[in-house]
Each structure stands twice: as C-alpha cells, then as structure tokens.
Design goal:
Structural class: alpha+beta
Family: Belongs to the relA/spoT family.
Radius of gyration: 33 Å
Number of helices: 27
Distance between the termini: 76 Å
Strand content: 15-25%
EC number: 2.7.6.5
Catalytic activity: GTP + ATP = guanosine 3'-diphosphate 5'-triphosphate + AMP
Helix content: 40-55%
Shape: globular
Organism: Novosphingobium pokkalii
Low-confidence stretches: 103-109, 339-352
Oligomer: single chain
Pfam families: ACT_4 (PF13291), HD_4 (PF13328), RelA_AH_RIS (PF19296), RelA_SpoT (PF04607), TGS (PF02824)
C-alpha cells in the first residue's frame, strides 16, 4: 500500500502545482472515516481507496481525480456525506464522488433493479465528466485483483460477470486496453476456471517448448525493417487467454487449431513510417488475405489507431502484427485517460457521441432489464463502418440494419424511416449492413416506429427509442379507449358530471393526472363502480350487488386504435369489421376483441366484458380461412389468383395436412370487412381447384 508521502510525491512529480495540503487532508480523511473496517483479504479497508488513487497517478490525472479516488467509498461505506465532502474539498470533488458512489441498497428492489439504478446514476455522472468513469474503472480493477479473497463463490462469479459484461467493455470503449485485458483475465478465471487453467497451461507449455521463438520472430521483424531504413521497437507476446478462449468458442475450434496465438507490436516514429513498415513486412512474408485492417485511416469509435495485419512466418507460423506510432501506442493502452485535457469547469475535450447515446438510452429505458440490455448493446465493440450519401461516417455493431443506422444519425430520422437504399439499391429495413455501405434512409413525416422493428434492431440506442415510442403510442391509445369507457360510465350516473367532478375524482383516486385516470380505466385497474364513486361519492351506495349496477348503454367503437396497442384482435376467432364483437378487459392488459360467437369467450368469465363496435371507417383486419385444395399442379396458383383478383393480401400461408387427394392450408388474409371475406370464400368454393373453404 502507498504511504501518504509516496502518493503525494507521485502527484507532484507530474503536477508540481498540485495542492499538496488537499491531497494530505484527503488521505487522512479516508483513513479516519474507514477506521477499523477490514476488507475480505484482512487488509485495512482504506488500503483500497489508496491503491485506486495510486492507479490514477499512473495515468497522471489531476488532483481532483486523485482526491476523488481517495474518497470514493466514504459516502457509501461510512458516515460521511456529500455535503461534508463539498465543504472540505470543494464542489468539483463532491460532484465526482457522488457520481462514483452507488445508490444505497433498497430492500424492495431486486438485484437487477439495484444494478440498473446504480448503472443509471453512474452513466449520467460519467456523461457529465469522464473522470467519474476513470475512477470507477480503477476501483473495479483493484477489486478484481483482490476478488479471490471473497469466500462466497456465488458472489465472486456475480462480480466477475458484471465486470465482464459492463466494466471491461466500458474500458474498451474509452480505449483503456490495459484495464480491459486485466479485467477480462481476472473475470475469466472466476467464470470459466477449467478453461482458464487449460489455456494458461497450454501457453506455459508453448513457452517452455518453443524457447525463444517469440524473441526470434521479433528480432527477424526488427532486422527486416532496419534493412529498409525504418527505426522501430518490436515487442512480442502470446495472445490474451480470454481472447484465445473467445476465438475458440466463436469458431468452434480446439486450442491446437488456433494458429495465430502470437502477436507483435511494432512502434515507429510517425504515420508515414507505419505504412512503410507495412509494405516491408508484406514484401518479406506472405500476408493472410482478409486479415488487414487500417485503423489509422478509420479509427475505432474509442479513438484506437493502428495497422493490423497477419503474416505467415517461415511458411509455418501465423503471427499477428500491429504497427503504430509511439504516441498511438500510449493512447491505445490508456485511451481517453491518456489525452483528455480538462477545461475550466470540468468539461472534457474530444468527441464522445456514444456517451450521448447512453444518455438517450437512460431516458428511453422503461425498466431495469431493458436498461441493462440496451446499455450492454451500446458499449460492446465489434463494429462496422457505414456512410451517409454525403460521406458522413457512422460506426455500428456487426449485424446492424438501416434502422440502427437511421437512429445513429438522428432519433427523428429513425422514427420517420419507411425504407432504405444501400449503395443505391432499395432494400428492406431488416437488411444487415456491410462494411463501407452507403446508406440512404427514406423517411415520411407520417411514419412512426413499429413494434416489429425490435425483431431486427441491434443497437441499444435504436431499441430503446423504438420501445419508448411504442410505449407512448400504446399509452395514448389505452387512454383513448379509457376515455370512451369513461364517457359511457359517466352517462350512467344520475347526475351530470363536469370538469370539476373529473378533477376531484383524480384526486380522490390519488392519481397524478386525468390521463392517468383514463389509462387506469382502459387497463381495468379501476372498475366501473370505483370510477362512479370517485365522480359522485355515494352514487353506488344503494347498489351493493354487482348485478344491480347500471349496465353499459352503448357500444364503444374501436376506430382510430391500432391492433396490438390498446386492443388485440383475438387469434382464436380473427374478428373482422362487420362481425359483432365484444371485448374482454383484464387488469393491466389491453382489451382482447372476440367475435360474439367465439367459443373461447367462455374462458373470459373472470374478465370485465365490454360491448364494442366497428366504426364505418375502421381499417381492415386479418381473417383466417381453411382451404382444402385438390392435389394436382396449379391449384395453389389458382387459389393465389383468386386472392389477387379480390385485392386481398396474404399475410401467412401454412400447409397443415397433406393427404391424397387433398392438401389443407390455413391462410391469413388482410380484408376490408366481413363482406369482403365472404366474397373470397364464395369464389374459392366456386373454383374447381378447391374442394372446401371455410372461415375459422
């Protein structure tokens, strides 16, 4: 553990103007506050914040960050408060400490909810000042170094999994590869102990068998470049054990089949020599096609720059070579921590668009699981590059689609997307993008995000925005059907009710707004009697039996509502406009619409029944037909022709039975109304190709 004077001397060595007195006060404060607390290792607890502060000095960070590292656990684990820290160390330090501090554990929260809320607070603080992230990463790295002292295997695995899923990818996103690699290695040891032991054992065996092979290859690379007049430093190492295991899992290969387990770093003086060195290596040894990547011309989203290539050394060994300048190497190892200067007021220089994306995800995420899912999507790395027609570059995850691209450009563009062109060719919105694609989004002001987009959107930003838009539309439509029900309920009261009675009812029911009341009615969280009592207290006092309550007097029209939002057309009977319909309303769910003669209605005895009607302007719906066709060539085509002549679109077609001389199909058709569906069935029955056709 660093002693007080050693820590101060480290800071003064690179920041002579630092406030030595504040550093000393912070060191003493954390020792006093943590007092006799012990870590699982048996060490004094204050050794942890001191070591985290030491990690910050290795990155040569400012005095406020060092003090924050010393104090980062005091608010969570001692009686210290943020106000006290602000009084003693200033507002800047207090804000940083508050950003790193976890929320107090709330017993009513689930583990995932606590994790999500902690992550939410941390990410918001990080978006305002990246130093919060740097302290948090150092805090997690030191905790991982001492993780083996924790006796509970479940707790070790939980911490390791959180590190692998959240903190290692975050370190990667800000380019702190040293932190990322060590976190992954330590987490890998806990999560996959057998695989860890096997791979590290194999690597040790290769080192003992191969002797100086890594050194020999490094020397050969250096000599080849020296003969070409390029001054270089060359270092070789085996690939990271976790990286090897991940490659084995992704490619479904054994350790013996992984041939490129050696990686070499070539450091040169300037960018020109990077490309010169690349040319020399490709002329000296055969390169492996498809393995060259130019991250200098197109850096990674975290600012990483380097040339990557793979060579076949002496016709046997595959080796990976990374070529970069010394400045690039320093930045690549420590990322934003190595080059971010802080302006007055704590604002960092540099572009961090992905941080803004994270803040959007925080605003859009509905619950703990959704926040964690979308955040993980946003911080994982494997990327492709795509361009707008004007040449603007966007980095997206592999598997991204035009919808992801549209939301990456702007949330409004994503919301209004109706189609896309990739490299000038019209494609569906679900089409995966490739590296270098030029993507043009076709938009319409009348368009809005569709729930189906979640089936192919892969970025956290896109998924969060889609879910938010769908939730807002769903709430608006539930409120609309709730208002129709409210108006019908109000008509049953003996006394007319106005706006004041409605406002009073909202207060009596302890709701926040009139819209909340309509949503509660639409989702059956309030029954008719509760609404009546809230509007006119005592109005149902003389009606103790539910059978005596006033009944619905007119049907509620479903025009203007989207199937799947406020209401759902039942799959059992597939009602279409023209059918007599009834709604089943259960607490917390939308209205389920059935045809009045549906056999499944008998299962709805526990639901609130609503009399519904189709409006004359109601859009069509999907009807279902069972058709038995003769088993001979052309019959399916003839049935399809009947659908086309009657302007009905086939949504789904499934063969359910194949038994000579008949084939039976279930067909889902988009139709305008019952009359339209009836005409189609009549046309099918009149066809020589169809043995029988019925609606189901």
């Amino acid at each position: 553990m660093l002693r007080q004077y050693e820590l101060v001397e480290r800071v003064l060595a690179y920041a002579p103007q630092a406030d030595e007195a504040m550093l000393n006060r912070a060191y003493v404060y954390t020792v006093q506050k943590h007092g006799t607390q012990k870590r699982a290792s048996g060490d004094p607890y204050f050794s942890h914040p001191v070591e985290v502060a030491g990690l910050m000095t290795e990155l040569k960070l400012d005095q406020e960050t060092i003090v924050t590292a010393l104090l980062h656990d005091t608010v969570e684990d001692t009686l210290a408060t943020v106000d006290e820290i602000e009084r003693l160390f200033g507002a800047d330090v207090a804000r940083l400490v508050d950003g790193v501090t976890k929320l107090s554990k709330i017993e009513t929260m689930t583990e995932s909810e606590r994790a999500a809320e902690n992550l939410r607070k941390f990410l918001l603080a990080m978006s305002e000042d990246l130093r919060v992230l740097l302290v948090k990463l150092a805090d997690r790295l030191h905790n991982m170094r001492t993780l083996h002292f924790i006796k509970s295997e479940d707790k070790r695995r939980r911490i390791a999994r959180e590190t692998m899923e959240i903190y290692a990818p975050l370190a990667q996103r800000v380019g702190m590869y040293e932190y990322m690699r060590e976190m992954q290695l330590l987490a890998f040891e806990q999560l996959e102990p057998e695989a860890y032991a096997t791979i590290t054992g194999r690597l040790a065996a290769i080192r003992s068998e191969g002797g100086g092979e890594v050194g020999d290859i490094a020397l050969s690379i250096k000599q080849a470049l020296a003969e070409a007049g390029v001054r270089v430093e060359v270092a070789g190492r085996e690939k990271h054990p976790y990286s090897i295991w991940k490659k084995m899992a992704e490619r479904h290969v054994s350790f013996e089949q992984i041939t490129d387990i050696m990686a070499f770093r070539v450091l040169v003086d300037d960018v020109g020599e990077c490309y010169k060195a690349l040319g020399v290596l490709h002329q000296t040894w055969q390169m492996i096609p498809g393995r060259f990547k130019d991250y200098i011309s197109t850096p990674k989203i975290n600012g990483y720059k380097s040339l990557h290539t793979s060579l076949i050394y002496n016709n046997a060994r595959r080796v990976e070579v990374q070529i970069k300048t010394r400045e690039m190497h320093h930045r690549n190892e420590y990322g934003l921590a190595a080059h971010w200067a802080y302006k007055q007021g704590g604002e960092p220089d540099g572009e961090v668009g992905w941080l803004r994306d994270l803040v959007e995800i925080l605003d859009a995420s509905h619950d703990a699981e959704e926040l964690l899912e979308n955040t993980k999507m946003a911080i994982y790395q494997d990327r492709i590059f795509a361009f707008t027609p004007k040449g603007a570059l966007f980095q997206l995850p592999k598997g991204a689609t035009p919808i992801d691209f549209a939301f990456a450009v702007h949330t409004n563009l994503g919301a209004q997307a109706v189609g896309a062109k990739i490299n000038g060719r019209h494609v569906p919105l679900r089409t995966p993008l490739g590296n270098g694609d030029v993507v043009e989004i076709i938009k319409s002001r009348n368009s809005e995000p569709q729930l189906s987009w979640l089936g192919f959107a892969v970025t956290g930003k896109a998924r969060a925005a889609i879910r938010r838009a769908v939730r807002q539309k769903e709430r608006a439509e539930v409120a609309l059907i709730g208002r129709k029900l409210y108006e019908e309920i109000a008509e049953r009261l003996a006394t007319p009710v106005g706006k004041k009675a409605l406002a009073d009812a909202v207060k009596r029911l302890k709701l926040n707004s009139e819209e909340d009341l309509m949503v509660a009615i639409g989702t059956a969280k309030l029954d008719d009697r509760q609404v009546m009592e809230a509007l006119v207290p005592g109005s149902t006092a003389n009606l103790p039996n539910p059978e005596d309550w006033p009944r619905q007097q007119r049907a509620i029209a479903v025009r203007g509502l989207t199937p799947g939002m406020a209401f759902k057309l039942a799959d059992c009977c597939h009602p279409v406009p023209g059918d007599r319909i009834v709604g089943l309303r259960r607490p917390g769910k939308g209205v389920e619409v059935h045809a009045i003669d549906c056999e499944k209605l008998a299962d709805g005895v526990d639901a609130d029944w609503i009399d519904l009607s189709w409006d004359k302007r109601t859009d069509g719906a999907v009807g279902r037909i069972r058709a038995e066709l003769y088993n001979r060539p052309g019959t399916l085509a003839e049935m399809a022709g009947i659908f086309a002549k009657n302007h009905a679109n086939v949504v789904n077609l499934e063969m359910t039975q194949r038994e000579n001389p008949f084939h039976t199909y279930l067909v889902d058709l988009e139709v305008r109304d019952l009359a339209h569906l009836t005409r189609i069935i009549s046309a099918l029955r009149a066809s020589d190709a169809v043995a029988q056709a019925d609606r189901i």
